[in-house]
Amino acid sequence: MSTDEMPPLVQMFQLLGGFQVSQALYSVAKLGVATALADGPRTIDELATATGADTDALGRIVRDLAPVGIFRTGEGVVEVTPLGATLAEGRAGSLRDVALFWMETHYAPFGVFLHTAVTGESAATHYYGEPFFDWISKSPELVRVTNAAMAAVTQALRAGMFDNYTLPEGPLVADIGGAEGSVLCEFLARDPNRRGIVFDLPEVVPAAKQVLAHHGLAARVDLAAGDFFTSVPEADVYLLSWILHDWDDESCRRILRTIKDSAAPGARLVIAESVMPPDDTPHPTKLTDLTMLAMLTGRERTAGEYEALLSAAGFNLDRIVPTPTPFSFIEATGN
Ligand SMILES: C[S@@+](CC[C@H](N)C(=O)[O-])C[C@H]1O[C@@H](n2cnc3c(N)ncnc32)[C@H](O)[C@@H]1O
After folding, report:
1. What separation in angstroms does the CA of 40 have from each of 47, 76, 82?
2. How far apart are the first and last CA of the chain?
3. Over the stretch 101-152, which tens digit does the pLDDT of each residue have?
4. Core-most of 206, 267, 283, 305, by most CB within 10 Å?
């Protein structure tokens, strides 16, 4: 029986139990259970020894997650399914780092989501006592976990996103809020004649060194640290990937104006975001919108809302290019 064929009471029970599944999946990811099964089935005893888990608890987690599609059990051994294997470490497209990022930084603030519903204030700000990115930037380990999750999103959810898209012309591309540089690498690896800049907060940008070196792009990309509310480097093409959805409208206008003031004449802007359908059409960005509401001051936006933001900051929206992923490229030029 598929979920939408279940009686409403059963469906609601399952929806309410989302926290059980999230935390059980997190345990599988954190303890390396999916990783330990990557080379083939094992007994629960072997798996518990390999991962440092309690044998009885692990047996129950495996048994309970099997119907969710994570494991197959039988003949005394456990096997990980292709779905479960997405939590294994070190695989291309692994979501293990996203599991760690969400459960170690988002889960607790979501416990006070009611505060957001009543006041409109971010649950993370309420829970941590400061804005989320300020809290993250104080801990090198949390910066590492965040960067790893962003890189995992690029590899997994954005697979195919860059294949048939060419950036607007211009020799120098600045990735504003570029984190560890994985998005810029996708573009520059396909485009040997351009140079790039990864721009992010001082605590974040050093992580890009390793990623750029790994892609053989260190010589073509400069790192620049700063605050996109104050100033950004001059460039011909600006990338804002997964930045504007983190911020409220006024902050977005400030970021866009900073870029406009720093840009070379005729510079182009490319925003990579999910564009929210204006109606009830299901779209993954609707759950991301809840994350923006709880964790930051941001929101997911419709095409019309992006056009209004851009226009208020002195940009004309040129076109929106959909991709085979939930993300689109929104191109704009300063007016
Ligand atoms: C959701 S991540 C997006 C990362 C990357 N562009 C991507 O698409 O994967 C947002 C990034 O904005 C950066 N950021 C937040 N506040 C910033 C600021 N004031 N100035 C520069 N970067 C900032 C964060 O450090 C983080 O790397």
Report:
1. 11, 13, 12
2. 55
3. 999 999 999 999 999 999 999 999 999 999 999 999 999 999 999 989 988 8
4. 267
Residue with tokens 């929210």: 276
How much distance in Å is there from the Cα of 187 to the middle of ligand 1?
18
Residue 305 neighbours by CB under 8 Å, 6+ apart: 276
Rounded distance between C-alpha atoms, residue 268 and residue 321, angstroms: 15
**Complete DSSP assignment for 227-279:** -TTT-----SEEEEES-GGGS-HHHHHHHHHHHHHHSPTT-EEEEEEPBPPSS
Count of alpha carbons within 13 angstroms of residue 44, beta-carbon side:
16
Give the whole-angstrom CA distance, residue 238 versus residue 172.
Answer: 9
Contact present, 300 and 292 (Cβ < 8 Å): yes
| pTM, to two decimals | 0.87
Report d(CA 48, CA 84) in Å as an integer.
17
**CB of 300 closer than 6 angstroms to any ligand 1 atom:** no
Ligand 1 centroid vs 184 CA: distance in angstroms?
A: 13
* β pairing state of 71-74 and 328-334: unpaired
Q: How far is the CA of 5 from the centre of ligand 1 (A)?
A: 41
Give residue 162's identity as a one-letter amino acid code.
Answer: F
**229 within ligand 1 shell (Cβ under 6 A):** yes
- Where does the pLDDT of residue 93 fall: very low under 50, low under 70, confident under 90, or very high at 90 and above? confident
How many Å apart are CA 165 and CA 167, to the nearest integer? 7
Whether 240 and 176 have beta carbons less than 8 Å apart is answered as yes
Q: Who contacts 331 (Cβ-Cβ below 8 Å, separation ≥6)?
A: 168, 268, 269, 270, 271, 317, 318, 319, 320, 321
In the block, which residue shows the tokens 């957001």?
A: 116
Cβ(246) – ligand 1 distance below 6 Å: yes
Any ligand 1 atom below 6 A from CB of 147: no
